[in-house]
Amino acid sequence: SHTLSTALDLEVLVEERQVVYETELFPALNLKRDGVNFCCFHSGKVVITGIKTLSQIDEVVFPVLIELELYTCKKE
């Protein structure tokens, strides 16, 4: 699991990345990259499953977490 710096703006993420997010069914957005699943909650919590090799952490997990930081709610 990982905690982002602030809350995620899931609506913007859905619009730009065209992923499925149905709040009535599950309160998190599910994102899948190269066999690794990211369950992203509005609070900024991310649960990561499906990692099979250590190399996937550098090649898949870290880039996705950096990308998700771009979708955090900006403080004004």
Largest sheet: 4 strands, antiparallel
Residue fraction in strands:
25-35%
Integer-rounded radius of gyration:
12 Å
Q: Could you give the order of the helices and strands? A: EHEEEH
Number of helices: 2
Identify the strand order in the major beta sheet. Answer: 1-4-3-2
**Shape field:** globular
Low-confidence stretches: none
State the end-to-end distance: 27 Å
| Share of helical residues | 25-40%
Give an overview in words.
With 76 residues, this protein is α+β, with helices and mostly antiparallel strands. It is 30% helix and 25% strand. It is built from two helices and four strands. It has helices at 10-17, 55-69, and strands at 2-3, 28-33, 36-41, 45-49. Strands 1-4-3-2 form a four-stranded antiparallel sheet. A hairpin with a 2-residue loop joins strand 2 (28-33) and strand 3 (36-41). It is globular, with a radius of gyration of 12 Å. The protein starts with a strand and ends in a 7-residue tail after the last helix. The relative contact order is 0.27. The mean pLDDT is 90.
What's a quick, concise take on this entry?
With 76 residues, the chain is an alpha+beta fold. It is built from 2 helices and 4 strands, in the order E-H-E-E-E-H. It has helices at residues 10-17, 55-69, and strands spanning 2-3, 28-33, 36-41, 45-49.
Q: What characteristics describe this protein?
A:
4 strands
Layout of SSEs?
Blueprint: E1 2-3, H1 10-17, E2 28-33, E3 36-41, E4 45-49, H2 55-69
